[in-house]
Amino acid sequence: MAAGELRLVAGLGNPGPAYERTRHNIGFMLLDRLADEYSIPLNEKKRFDAIMGRGRIEGVETLLVKPLSFMNRSGIPISRISQYHGINSEDPVIVHDDIDLALGRIQIKEKGGHGGHKGVRSVMDAFGSGDFIRLRMGVGRSETGSEVSDHVLGKFKPDEFELLDEVLARSRDAAVSILCRGAKESMNRFNRK
To answer: I want to staple 69 with a disulfide (CB 3.0 to 4.6 A). Which of 48, 73, 104, 140 is the partner?
Structure first.
């Protein structure tokens, strides 16, 4: 990635009020926080089936993207937006929930598989590879043994909100670090337990 090039950060989630504050929408929550803290207005772009905003994050020209096509088809808008702006398939930062990480944990990863995550699989299918950067945000597994879909589509519990705010703040720092310092340096800093 050359200096001065446009970067893309996409948060995965599902559109609509029914999905707000659900574990599956933690990627959307982080994008909202970035947009708010860096004064980047987000607007719906029907042409791309996404909510988007463009601005500077610590001096880096950045496009924030929230696909509106639902989780399992989120790769299509991200790919189309990347192609339109000339962003290579290995450069987007994809922010998503991860049940294999406990709530409060985050992990940055370059390349790899989808790990059963339908949104990540959609992005891989749309780009034809898994070479993009992922910012995985832990939501943990159900303590009651409920189905994975019920767990990730469930809303955060009141006692989880304080930890959620902490992880959103740390994830914001991780996303900014990826944009400014690159994935490898950011992995060394943020992937510790």
So the answer is: 73
Residue 150 lies in a domain: yes
Contacts of 176 (CB under 8 A, 6+ apart): 57, 58
Q: In this structure, what CATH number is given to the domain that contains residue 34?
A: 3.40.50.1470
Q: The domain containing residue 142 runs over which residues?
A: 7-190
The DSSP bridge partners found for residue 23 are none
Q: Are 113 and 121 in contact (CB under 8 A)?
A: no
Q: Which residue type does 125 have?
A: D
Catalytic residue positions? 24
Sheet holding 50-57, edge to edge: 43-45, 50-57, 60-67, 7-11, 93-98, 133-138, 106-110
- Residue from 44, 42, 122, 45 nearest 76 by CA: 122
- In this prediction the pTM is 0.91
Q: Is residue 174 one of the residues assigned to a domain?
A: yes
| Domain assignment of residue 38, yes or no | yes
Query: What tokens were used for 98?
Result: 């991860």
- Counted domains in the chain: 1
| Residue written as token pair 């599956």 | 24
Residue 1 lies in a domain: no
- Exposed, middle or buried: residue 70 (CB in 10 Å: 0-12, 13-18, 19+)? middle
Q: Assess contact for 103 and 164: CB atoms under 8 A.
A: yes
Q: Are the beta carbons of 55 and 45 closer than 8 angstroms?
A: no
